[in-house]
């Protein structure tokens, strides 16, 4: 059995942002990396950076006519920002623009920024500067766009600045500075009409992010998301399902459901009933999950809060109607720290809820993120968190050391924790979680699992796959040895687990394609 370890990552000082605590552009260590790893900028599920060449290579459905104006695209930040970039690129392509492969070939460059934490702000400002120096014509959009003065002060030559999910404003700004291509019979590209309803995606063909809402109604003290993206605004259920069905039709095998607060979906719509395929559906978390099951593909839930009504969704997982996987940002276990964070459901007994979920669905995989060194966190608070982790035995864990975010209420809280203490607590937490992860993966040896192929290492004859317990890029992998030439990316395989490391599984292939 050939063993390949996961890409190593390391933590950096970061601050969480409500459920999107892992959504910022940042370096951090999920449980799929040793604490002693060398620094690596992890392209996590929560950090979906795309360079100008990445955007070009991924947008395979875009027209390729030589006559169209070319727009370069740099996308930084979380999956929600990536979805915004996909939508903008789709609309530009439908208008006849091409996606440029480099700065030199672009008539203009759009930079979709992240602004959740200071390191993300600096990365965004640097990306804007690079685009200006290498191209000269730059439009800025995304979360950092809320601070247009800061952007213009550092980069006065930017052509336009818009905020997050400002699709129409970006399209208008692009067409103002680079006129929309004239679609006459001579140079019209018929591929424009072949862009699917799913749009152009910047993810691999076999999985895609499906954003069901924007904004957040919570006011966590460490978070600035409401000021960046506003309060909760849910998409009507028929719109969500239409996109989901289009993605399946385009070949997507796995949908990753994202938002700022997935379990609050539809609250702002008062769970309004809409019609999809002639069926009445409520814009409600549980009803949406039931409907998505009808598509017959993997559905993975991210950004879920531990509200009581999540229990019903876990029942769907036990019935194999959803992947038994929950991404829930517990953030801490000390009630005093959670109260200072103003976390929703901070008074809930989360251990009881986890045990209840496992009673309903024994195979459920739970991922979470935690913050150490929050202002006022004592050694006793931290020990409460460590003891909680040992009892909870979560499958995947990411950890942050707290840092200030401009505009966050937590900045003004008393008793900030020294940096060396934060780092010490981070390392201790990750050591505990590493042991838990290793134990849990050892329990999988000998089991048969269905996995989805993400990559093929032809030289080593290995398929790099994921199981139901592994979200793309943030969790572990299942490495399948001695594959046949028939194995392709995006294919489901039935494998037997032969070995395990702290974060990854190693398997042998049974050449029988799994079900869905």
TrEMBL record:
[4Fe-4S] cluster 1 binds at residues 78, 114, 143. One of its GO terms (cellular component) is ribosome. Residues 25-34, 46-62 have a biased composition (Polar residues). PROSITE patterns: MTTASE_N, MTTASE_RADICAL, RADICAL_SAM, TRAM. Its cofactor is [4Fe-4S] cluster. Binds 2 [4Fe-4S] clusters. One cluster is coordinated with 3 cysteines and an exchangeable S-adenosyl-L-methionine. Pfam families: Radical_SAM, TRAM_2, UPF0004. It catalyses: L-aspartate(89)-[ribosomal protein uS12]-hydrogen + (sulfur carrier)-SH + AH2 + 2 S-adenosyl-L-methionine = 3-methylsulfanyl-L-aspartate(89)-[ribosomal protein uS12]-hydrogen + (sulfur carrier)-H + 5'-deoxyadenosine + L-methionine + A + S-adenosyl-L-homocysteine + 2 H(+). It is an enzyme of class 2 (transferase). It is found in: Cytoplasm. Residues 202-439 form the Radical SAM core domain. Residues 1-62 are annotated as: Disordered. Keywords: 4Fe-4S, Cytoplasm, Iron, Iron-sulfur, Metal-binding, Ribonucleoprotein, Ribosomal protein, S-adenosyl-L-methionine, Transferase. [4Fe-4S] cluster 2 binds at residues 216, 220, 223. Residues 1-24 have a biased composition (Low complexity). The keyword Transferase applies. Residues 69-179 form the MTTase N-terminal domain. It comes from the Bacteria. Its EC number is 2.8.4.4. Catalyzes the methylthiolation of an aspartic acid residue of ribosomal protein uS12. Belongs to the methylthiotransferase family. RimO subfamily. PANTHER family: RIBOSOMAL PROTEIN S12 METHYLTHIOTRANSFERASE RIMO, RIBOSOMAL PROTEIN US12 METHYLTHIOTRANSFERASE RIMO. This is Ribosomal protein uS12 methylthiotransferase RimO. The lineage of its organism: Bacteria, Pseudomonadati, Pseudomonadota, Gammaproteobacteria, Moraxellales.
């Amino acid at each position: 059995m050939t063993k390949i370890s996961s890409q190593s990552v390391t933590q950096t000082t970061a601050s969480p942002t409500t459920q999107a605590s892992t959504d910022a552009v940042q370096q951090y260590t999920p449980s799929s990396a040793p604490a002693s790893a060398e620094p690596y900028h992890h392209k996590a599920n929560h950090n979906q950076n795309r360079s100008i060449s990445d955007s070009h290579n991924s947008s395979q459905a875009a027209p390729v006519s030589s006559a169209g104006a070319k727009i370069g695209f740099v996308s930084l930040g979380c999956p929600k920002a990536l979805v915004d970039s996909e939508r903008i690129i789709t609309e530009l392509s439908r208008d006849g623009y091409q996606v440029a492969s480099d700065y030199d070939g672009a008539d203009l460059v759009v930079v979709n920024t992240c602004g959740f934490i200071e390191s993300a702000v600096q990365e965004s400002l640097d990306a804007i500067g690079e685009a200006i120096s290498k191209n000269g014509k730059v439009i800025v959009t995304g979360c950092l766009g809320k601070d247009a003065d800061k952007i213009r002060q550092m980069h006065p030559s930017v052509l336009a600045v818009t905020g997050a999910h400002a699709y129409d404003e970006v399209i208008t700004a692009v067409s103002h500075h680079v006129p929309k291509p004239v679609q006459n019979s001579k140079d019209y590209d018929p591929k424009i009409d072949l862009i699917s309803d799913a749009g152009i995606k910047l993810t691999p063909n076999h999985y895609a992010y499906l954003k069901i809402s924007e904004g957040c109604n919570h006011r966590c003290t460490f978070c600035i998301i409401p000021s960046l993206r506003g309060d909760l605004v849910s998409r009507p259920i028929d719109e969500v399902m239409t996109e989901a069905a289009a993605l399946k039709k385009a070949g997507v095998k796995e949908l990753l459901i994202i938002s700022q607060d997935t379990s609050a979906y539809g609250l702002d719509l008062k769970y309004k009933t809409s019609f999809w395929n002639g069926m009445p559906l409520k814009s409600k978390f549980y009803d949406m999950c039931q409907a998505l099951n009808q598509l017959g593909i993997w559905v993975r839930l991210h950004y879920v809060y531990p509200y009581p009504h999540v229990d019903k969704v876990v029942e769907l997982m036990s019935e194999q109607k959803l992947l038994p996987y929950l991404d829930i940002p517990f953030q801490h276990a000390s009630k005093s720290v959670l109260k200072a964070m103003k976390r929703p459901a901070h008074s809930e007994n989360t251990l009881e809820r986890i045990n209840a979920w496992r009673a309903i669905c024994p195979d459920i995989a739970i991922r979470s993120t935690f913050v150490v060194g929050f202002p006022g966190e004592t050694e006793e608070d931290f020990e409460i968190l460590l003891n909680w982790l040992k009892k909870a035995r979560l499958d995947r864990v990411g950890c942050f050391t707290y840092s200030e975010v401009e505009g966050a209420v937590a900045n003004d809280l008393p008793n900030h924790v020294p940096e060396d203490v934060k780092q010490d607590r981070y390392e201790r937490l990750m050591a505990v979680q590493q042991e838990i992860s290793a134990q849990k993966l050892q329990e999988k040896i000998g089991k048969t699992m269905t996995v989805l192929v993400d990559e093929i290492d032809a030289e080593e004859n290995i398929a790099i796959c994921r199981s139901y317990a592994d979200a793309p890029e943030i969790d572990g992998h299942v490495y399948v040895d001695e594959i046949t030439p028939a194995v392709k990316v995006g294919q489901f395989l039935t494998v037997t687990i032969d070995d395990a490391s702290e974060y990854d599984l190693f398997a042998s292939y049974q050449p029988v394609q799994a079900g869905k």
